[in-house]
Amino acid sequence: MNNLYGLSLEESKKVPGLILKLSDILSYSLYESSADRISLYKEIKLIEDFIALEQERYGNRMNIDFELSEELDETIEIAPLLLIPLVENAFKHGVKEATEAIPIRIYLGHEEQSLVFEVSNQVPDGPPVVRLAKQGLGLKNLQRRLELLYPRQHTLVTERKGDLFLAKLKLEYDA
Q: Tell me: the pLDDT tens digits for 40-80?
């Protein structure tokens, strides 16, 4: 909101498009998130809108690579808001304090009857291994939701390798 406010003071032509993206994100959070399942297409759109807002916020301090597998079926239905916490984490812990361009890689694909979502980002110096239990509320909430919604049908692995933080979610979906 502060970025939009600043841009509006400058009378930037970007403001209407950014407000529309923010509106879409808020609408999704309010209305779509109450559904049991949502199309993967809508989750992808949410991620794209979020990235667009963050790109405006951080500018050249980030370098995003968002890759969708060509064979990905965007009509697959999953529980809403499962993917965005991993993307939010990459920005929060990777770009927020950066003074130079930080790469963030996001991949969404599939293996057999499983959706594969991987997010990696550079992080500041720290301990060599980060365990899920030591993470903030976002990852803990995601893990709990996965346990409730996809018992024995998911894996979520997070780890730090050098200056990279990697998160990989594998989610079995209904055919």
A: 999 999 999 999 888 877 777 788 999 999 989 999 999 99
Q: Which residues contact 12 (CB under 8 A, 6 or more apart)?
A: none
Closest to 106 (Cα-Cα) out of 153, 43, 29: 43
Beta-sheet strand order (sheet of 102-111): 62-68, 102-111, 114-122, 164-172, 154-161
Task: Compute the Cα dihedral for 162, 165, 168, 169 and give only its sign.
Answer: positive
Question: Is the distance from CB of 167 to CB of 118 less than 8 angstroms?
Answer: yes
Contact in structure between 171 and 114 (CB atoms under 8 Å) = yes
Tokens of 37: 């399942």
Rounded to 5 degrees, what are φ and ψ at 42? -70, -35
